[in-house]
Amino acid sequence: QVQLVESGGGSVQAGGSLSLSCAASGRTLTNYIMAWFRQAPGKEREFVSWITWNTGRTYYIDSMRGRFTITRDNAKNTVYLQMNGLKSEDTAVYYCAARNSFGDNNYLMEVRGYDYWGQGTQVTVSS
């Protein structure tokens, strides 16, 4: 089992920045892929970005590439999402997710691709 705890959400004005953290515990994460998703009110949960724990390879959805940056700190077992240039449409609950990289990795941009989830942290951007 992997436990994930997000933090760092809050309220910010448009154009501002926030840094989210996801602290992981329970397993050695060397062979894991970590991701961020978000869910706005009344909408489905959508993919934001993923990072491979061992190599640090990253991927972003196009609309967030250049504004958001995913990183990980191996020593702290923590994944981060730095969000800059925030817009009102970025308002959502942001979730951290994890999966073991072995097996089928065809769904890394989908909710079903991940086995472990955090409880989420609210980000509100006011215009």
Descriptive account of the structure:
It is a single chain. This protein is mainly β and 127 residues long. The chain contains no helices and 11 strands. The strands form 2 sheets. Strands 2, 4, 5, 6, 9, 10 and 11 form a 7-stranded mixed sheet that branches. A hairpin with a 6-residue loop joins strand 4 and strand 5. The N and C termini lie far apart (40 Å). The mean pLDDT is 95.
Relevant terms:
four-stranded antiparallel β-sheet; seven-stranded mixed β-sheet; mainly beta; globular; 127 residues
Secondary structure topology:
Blueprint: E1 3-7, E2 10-13, E3 18-25, E4 32-39, E5 46-52, E6 58-60, E7 68-73, E8 78-83, E9 92-100, E10 116-117, E11 121-126
Q: What's a concise summary of this model?
A:
The protein has 127 residues and is mainly β.
The chain-level mean pLDDT equals 95
Radius of gyration: 14 Å
How many E strands? 11
**Uncertain regions spanning at least 5 consecutive residues:** none
Please write the string of helix (H) and strand (E) elements. Answer: EEEEEEEEEEE
The helix fraction, in percent, is under 10%
Q: Largest sheet, described in full?
A: 7 strands, mixed
Work out the strand percent: over 45%
User: CA-to-CA gap between the ends?
Assistant: 40 Å
Give me the oligomer status: single chain
Output the structural class. Answer: mainly beta
Helix tally equals 0
- The global form is globular
